Request: fold
Amino acid sequence: MKKIGTGDIKDLCTGAAFLATGGGGDPYVCQLLAERLLKKFGSATLLAPNEVPDEFYVVSIGMVGAPSVTLEQLPTEEESIAALNKYEEITGKKIDAVIPFEVGGGNSTIPLFVAAMRGIPCIDGDGMGRAFPEAQMMTFPIYGVHPTPAVVTDFYGNHVLLDCKDAETFEKEIRAQAVKMGGMVSSAEHGMSGDSVRRSAVPGTLSFATRLGNLLRSHGGLIDAIQPHLFELFAESDYGHIKHLFTGKVLDNERKVIGGYDVGSTTLQSFDDPEIKMSLLIKNEYLIAKIGKQVVASVPDLICIVEQETSRPLNAERMRYGQRVSVFGIGCTHHYRTPEALKVTEPRAFGFNLDYVPIEDL
Amino acid sequence: MRIGIDVGGTHTDAVLMDGMAIVTSHKALTTTDVRQGIIEALDAVMSEANTEPGSIEAVMIGTTHFTNAVIERRELTETAIIRVCLPTGSGLPPMCDWPEDIGAIVGNHCYMIAGGHFFNGKPIACIDEAETNKVIEDISSKNIKDIAIAAAFSPANPEHEIAVANLLLKIIPDANVSLSHKLGRLGILERENAAILNASLGVLAGRVVYSMKAALKERRIKCPFYISQNDGTLMSAEYIANFPALTFSSGPTNSIRGAAILSGIDNAIVVDIGGTTSDVGVLADGFPRESNSHIEVGGVRTNFRMPDILPIGLGGGSLVSEGGNVIGPQSVGHHLVKESLVFGGETLTATDISVANGSCEVGNKSLVSHLDSKIVNTATETLHSMIDNAIDKMRPSEEPVPVILVGGGAILISQQLKTASTLIQPEHAGVANAIGAAIAQVGGEVEQIVSYSKVKRETTLENAIREAEAKAVAAGADKSTLRVLDIEETAMSYMDDDAARLRVKVIGDLELGT
Reply:
């Protein structure tokens, strides 16, 4: 069994920021919290999905809301622990392990410190293998895990029990709760058995994010210099395909809140030929990348951006005019390549009149 | 007429200006006693121009004193921090990410109490007077006078910071209180850090300002004097005792602003070449481009408005090695006049290369005549390409940009740079910092979380600009010169109400002649 300790958190957060495909917010606050708690309570035990006993009861835990709110309403471990306690109380079930919603941003660290504090393992995997803006886009509901009962907990320790008929309704309800309860809530949801974890989770993503973050962080220089290593790392993973799509500078970054999400676009300009431009369409995360009119990557494949000179992953809200960046397209794992997964994550699910073409075929 | 003074770690520079024209300038060594250095600088520029103290309308001072105090961990006082946030935030108490050494010096006197606001302006909790007074009594019993207060979302609603400060002043009437909303933007950890550093510099700030005032008084200069801050704007000297942290990055800012005045160019790259390092910055519309990322001051994370500066290890004293292929980052520093070849020393420095290749005349040229021309050519190429690469990283586009060279090491550059459309080496480039201080403007800034579904976007923007203008005028700006410097909107993810973070900054010329 693997362990993740306080010394691994910076790497994990860097890797998770890369896999967040522009979303996830600034992971610094959750990084600090996880470093402190793992120092105090010891390393968290990682349990690979194929090691989870069938009879294990696993619950997904994390935060839902506006990342910018966490800059002021700093998260505490207490909310997540309270949500889990209430979940056990309501369901009458004992939680044997926890699993992250997503491997993007701060939500990758919350289950780790919760696991360390409770003395239970954290599953080395998640419900996205990346970040997506909505709950029904998680692999858990796609592969038959019901999102509710879910316990939603706020800063005061108030709990709201959600019992919804499907994942789409759950997304609407939990989003409304987050707005009502100060912009950010903790949620214990998607209770599942060990065999459901194996069926629905994207495996190995926490340890993969840590390795990826270590590669980016220990290098810390021009991304071009480590591109072969980066390609090797992804080629050997469940993601498989990785392509360098573009290198250029940020020309424009336009964003608006529509219906409770960040919607907008970013335009990049090539260094070699100023006429060549890449546009990125955003709904919290990067959804579609085009060079001119040609689509070069789209959801559910990953579009990941790093600062060219430092190899530091950049989330969408940190993009600014003049920044020099490198863009990579990465194949989603096989979990998102089935008809039922594509139905909720392909470009059409986001309202684009566009078919999904896998990155390796583009 | 006005006088600009830059009190740096090594030099105290002064410049006497009539409008935008430079009358006289002076470069002297900084003295341990700030007062004495300023008096010498004043005497030099005023006697040379034969100017009476009565004709000086304003004195502007830029200083790296407070930055150096934090970096060198000296002259900081023990400081208490009260964070108004519970029940949020207990997982990450104040100062939890500070380097141990500076944390120990400031004393780790951290308190958290109920209060603060949500993004929508509603209180997280009410201030509990009894609980708050207990905390204040504890601080009082430790005899701590320097106190920082930070409340959640205080940039949008400072009510609770002010309420706690009022309770505090009842029990500790002589307290030096730093309120975080006056120092930073959203991001409570960084804003709180800024407030703690600011409070901790209070005693030093009081002393330095007193020395500056004493120097002016001794030379019978009765006009107002100002201190320049990070973004190139001024704050009145009365404010500096309260906000020393706002000067943290004024050095590079002043050199970029000074370069703009000296060259008459508003958009360019400014390269300030010193003895050990060079700072490359971007001049955009007459002001330095601000950095977007979090800036550490002495290892403490802050979110101050700071210029985007790329420092590289190349200066006049940089060591030349590997047949001229490697220059710096080691440097002989201020021992240049002893250790470099042209001054009879034994160390090959970047300055020696510039003398050998004929780009400048310093020291004794015959002492470098024996140098292999291959090494001289290689080193010349190396130092130009180092500057070129740094400019390339900073310039806003692939187009060649005007490049302004300032600082004592500007003489190193003898050829055209690939990245430069024009290369400008203005007169008085050595005292660009003092000039930058002399011509600094005053500004007003507003940052809020806004909801466009409640108040229309145009109305919201208009209100924010009016508020920022009022702040600028209160800071001493001439109403007729006000202009909006920056409007920054950040959409807030996942939120309804079309919410955004809005930041507006208005600047104007300092009103003189009153």
Remarks:
- The domain at 265-421 of chain B is CATH 3.30.420 (Nucleotidyltransferase; domain 5).
